[in-house]
Amino acid sequence: MPSMDDTDRTIMNRIQSDFPITSRPYLAIADDLGLSEKEIIKRLARLKESKIIRRIGGNFVPEKLGFVSTLCAAKVEENKIDRFASIVNRYHGVTHNYQRDSEFNIWFTFIAPSMEEIEKNLENISQETGIKKILNLPATKVYKIKAHFDL
Amino acid sequence: MLTELEKKIISLIQGDIAITQRPYLEIAENLGIPEEALLDTLKDLCKRGVIRRFGATIRHQKSGFKANAMTAWKVDEDRVDEVGKKMASFKEVSHCYRRNPSDEWPYNLYTMIHARDEELCRETARTMSEAASVDTYKLLFSRRELKKTSMKYFPTS
Q: Chains A, B: CB contacts under 8 A, how many?
C-alpha cells in the first residue's frame, strides 16, 4: 500500500472539505501550511497517482440541481449477480453499487431528474433481469452527510 | 434555479480539478469566461448550498479506513429523530438517514460506519446500539464493489 507521511496527512485534512477557490489554490494551501506551492503540487500529484485521492472537485446536493436520489436494494441469486449488475450499471444515474452480505444483497444508489423516472427504470430493470424484488428507499430525513476523514 | 452558465460550470467541476498552478484558469478558458467570473460563481454555488463540499475525495480503502458497514436499524418511529441525531454524532458515522420501512425490510434508519477493520465496525455498532437503546439492527458489509463513480450532471457531450 502506498504510504502517507505526516505532511501528506496534513495536506489531505486541509483540502478534503475546503479546497481554496482562488486563482492559485495550491499556493493558498502552501501558505496555510508553511510549505511551497511546488511541494504541495508534487505531493498531491503523488497521492493522486497512488490513488489515495480519488478526485478533487465539487460534490453536489442532487435536489438543489433539480434531481432526486434514492437507495435501492435487490434480492439476486448468486449466479445472476454479474448479469444483474451489468444491466443496472448501464444507467449513468446509478453511481454506487455494492454486493453486501444480507438477504437483500445488491445495494445501489440512483440519481435522476424525477422519482417517476427512477421507478420506471426499476421496472425496466425488473423486466430485463427477472429480478422482481427491488426496494426503492429514498431518504425521508438526513441526519448526517460527512465526507471528511481525519487522517 | 440554475443558469445555463452555472450548469456548464457544474459539468466541468464535477470531474477532477487539475493539479497545476492555475487550474481554474484552464476551466475558465474552456468556458470562454474570465477566471474571476468562474471563481465568483463557484463561491456563490457553495454559499447557496448547491455545492455541498468542494475538495478532495479520498479512497477509504487506501487511507486506513478499510472496512465499512452499512448498518440498518429498526427504530420506533416516535424515537427516530432522537436516535438519528445520536447516531449522527458518532465520528465513525459518515452518513445517517431515515428511510421508509417495508414489509420485507423493516429497517428505517441507516448509518454508514467506517473503521479500520470489520471487528471495529461491529464494536462501534454495539456501542451505538447501547447508546441509543436500539436492539434490532443489521450490519451489511460490502463484499464487492460493483460500481463507484460520481454523478455526471448536465453532460455537455
A: 232
DSSP A43: H
Res. B17 pLDDT band, cuts 50 70 90: very high
- ipTM strictly over 0.85? yes
pLDDT interval class at B67 (50, 70, 90): confident
User: Could you tell me if residue B147 is inside a domain?
Assistant: no
- Domain of B8? 4-47
Whether B46 and A147 lie within 8 Å, measured CB to CB: no
Asked if B113 contacts B121 with a C-beta cutoff of 8 angstroms, the reply is: yes
Question: How far from each other are the two terminal CA atoms of chain A, in whole angstroms?
Answer: 15
- Is the residue at B14 inside a domain? yes
**pTM for the model:** 0.88
Among A47, A65, A82, A95, the strongest candidate for a mutation testing the B interface, having the largest count of B CBs within 10 A, is: A65
In angstroms, how far is CA A1 from the centroid of its own chain? 22
Residues B26 and B65 placed together within one structural domain of the fold: no
